[in-house]
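Appendix B. Chain record.
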Amino acid sequence: MDNLLTKLFKTPETRERVFRTLVLLVVYRLGFQIPIPGTDPKFLQSTADQGIMGMLSALSGGAIGQTTVFALGIMPYISASIIFSMLTKVSPALEAISKEGAAGQKRINQWTRLAVVPIALIQAILVYTGVFLAGGAQMVDQGMRHHHVALFCIVVFSLIAGSMLVMWIGELITEYGVGNGASLIIMAGIIAVMPSSFASITSNPNFWQILMFLTAVWVVVIFAVVFMHKGARRVPIQYARLTRGRRVYGGQRHYLPIKVNMAGVMPIIFASVLFVIPTVLFKWVGWHSVEGTLQDTTGFVHVSFYLVLIFSFCFFWNRLMFQPEEIANNLREHGSFVPGIRPGQKTAEYLSNVLTRVTLVGAAFLALVAVLPAFITKDSGMTRSMQYFVTGTSVLIVVGVALELMDKLQAQLVMKTYEGTEEGAQGQGQARWAQSGKGKKPSQGGAK
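Structure tokens predicted for this chain:
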């Protein structure tokens, strides 16, 4: 690790990208200190950390429930990206555009940015209905308490503008920083709340026992997350041998990796978002008993509904992103096959069965990660964000983003090392050419 960090900061381009990323993340965090006009700045001292809103804050890197401009975080952009990722696989027109290369991907990215506006509008209305109206007078400035229409417009448009700025910062990190801007923003939002979350348990008389217990749980969860993140089912692929004259091409064996946790954290985010809509509706119509049943994270209804959503979306997402029929056709067109399996339909059925078994394991792991925090830390007195970070979903996000970031930085170092080696080899070749006398111009006498 020390050697890797030393090499990173010795490379000028990588060092500049890291510094740009840090500056942009600082700018992102400063947005949480800007209150929405017309709201009470004193409410910044408290956090809406209960129920579904606290869960979405932990998943999106935002602060849903606080009266800040960046309260929505990166959630609208994530929602738009998920929608277009699914539409690309479902719609033949979008699929054809996505296969056009960089130009097609640029068009889809532009449509994703445009879709952020209506999605942010819907989410801002839900936040205003579920948080600001529920918060009442404590969240609203004295002069705005009787101007409901003006307050609604100010809050909604401020949240939309904040979500667009967060999306822009994420794209700047992706283009000029180390990459994965949206993921790094979520990771920064999760880590930023950790000092206050740890401070909430310092007053507990059993602080050291709780800290040791949480450390042990944290180590186990991180090990499990890393193990599942790197886990993959490698399907052997054999390339057919082709004879051209006296040369034989192909005949090599490669592997098609099918990741165990192919969907990542998407099923958990999708299930959490679906929980928001009925919760806000029940609160709006006054069905507080049903709302309390849905928000009881250790209750049978909440856990059962949550598990069904996670398993369903995990299978749906994997089937959408990994299509066995298309892969089987591509293998047959390139003269490849799975040893022992006939090309074509039999290969598609084999890949489908492998995907089903792998997805079942990945979905069970995600369900355990999503449900575990509520049971382990039920009576610990920790905040909701602390529970998610230490034992579950937030660890999955942070560890996954950290592993992807390390892989990308190592790839950049390998590329820079290869470029340096190539330039050095060219320089040494030119030097040998000059020393051998072949690079010298012939003298006049020699020409005669």
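Further analysis of this model is presented in Appendix C.
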